[in-house]
Structures are given as structure tokens and as C-alpha cells.
């Protein structure tokens, strides 16, 4: 799984935040646009693009794109 592709797919779930603002260090919960709808969209994207089913409670402790990327990657192994 490629980190840059993951960032691109992650950023695509946000309408008002420019994709260039997203890096592995981005603390996505601190974005003005962050909402539970974004969380559901991200979980859906992860399921479709990476065939990984994450429960909301598994995503809850993640704060950065890197942490979420690592979680998804751990499910692929």
C-alpha cells in the first residue's frame, strides 16, 4: 500500500479542505471540516479501495493520517 495514494484517497473525502494540506502528519480531527460524516466516508473508502473493514471504534484512537495508514496497513498483513 502506497502512502501517497492513501493520502490522495483520504483527501478526496473532504470537500472544502485543499488536498495539498494533507500529509501523513495531518491531524485530521482538528480540521474545521471534520465530522462524523467524514469519518464514515473514510471508513467506506478504506473498505472499497483496500478491502479492509474498520469499525468506527478502531478508527477512534487515530489522530493523524499516519496513524490511520498504519492501522490499515496492519490489517493488510
Automatic annotation (TrEMBL):
Signal sequence, start to end: none
Entry superkingdom: Bacteria
SUPFAM superfamilies per record: ACP-like
InterPro entries in alphabetical order: ACP-like_sf, PP-bd_ACP
Domain Carrier: 1-76
Pfam family, one: PP-binding
Protein name, entry field: Putative acyl carrier protein
